[in-house]
Amino acid sequence: MLLGSQLRRLREARGITRDAAGFVIRASESRISRMEMGRVSFKTRDVEDLLTLYGVTDKAERGALVDLARDANLAGWWHRYSDVLPNWFATYVGLEGAASLIRTYEVQLVPGLLQTEAYARAVIGGGMKGASAADIDRRVALRMERQKILTPENAPCLHVVLDEAVLHRTYGDRGTMRDQLRLLIELSENPNILLQIMPFSFGGHTGESGAFTILSFLEYDLPDVVYVEQLTSALYLDRREDVAQYGQALKELQRDSLGPDGSRDLLHEVLHLP
User: Quick one: which of 7, 148, 140, 159 has its CA closest to 76?
Assistant: First the structure.
């Protein structure tokens, strides 16, 4: 998806039609469209030919995009969970693993990267009425596996804004919620994690449209991607104007929310409520 987006930008910058691009790699216009949307695999030779057509001659830029094409065709670790992983979410897991910065706003629940196993089980079980215990176990295992991206030395930076409602909405029993709050306090001390709470006391704010995540990448000139999850699908937005609007909304949420210390104080306060 990231590679396709970049190829589209390069093509449009040169004023080249999809039909003309397809002619160069002996493909149809619809094939180019599917490539640019990340719906099909990439041949390295085709990517190299398109980069030449688009005037990309810088060795570093070409190399980064060709490497991305090779990586795009590799099966990620999450494919082991394909039996319980919807295709639309598999895309997100891949993007999440490649991101250098993950910024998210959540109003309903603790983000998956910060959930305890018990909290994750309560969330997943509540959302999968009638699912087998084995399927729930597999989804919980997937969520715990995703969290491993936060531990290496080159871990991404994670900036989270939680609406205060998340702290009061119970998943599981009281013990589950207390353990989850304790984990949030602990994780908020990590140097690569910035956790802020949007308090009830602030009133209305710019997050009224709901939860979203912005993923940013180190690779050369790759666009940010906004992820908006729906009940049975998700939106992946990478057009500059869309990303800019979500980015501005998140900046305002961060500005208006409690700082890290104030957020920890509120977490402690909620933790010790009777």
Answer: 148
Domain stop point among 36, 52, 72: 72
List residues bridging with 228 in a β-sheet.
235
Q: Which of 211, 234, 250 is nearest to 111 (CA)?
A: 211
| Residues 135 and 193 occupy one common structural domain | yes
Cα distances from 50 to residues 27, 118, 190, 229, 268, in angstroms, run 11, 48, 43, 32, 55
Q: Position 269: which residue type?
A: E
218-219-224-230 Cα dihedral, nearest 10 degrees:
-100
pTM of the model: 0.81
The 10s digit of each residue's pLDDT in 62-107 is 998 898 888 877 778 888 998 999 988 988 998 999 899 999 999 9
H-helix or E-strand spanning residue 133: helix 133-146
For residue 99, give its domain range. Answer: 77-271
β-strands 212-216, 225-229 pairing = antiparallel
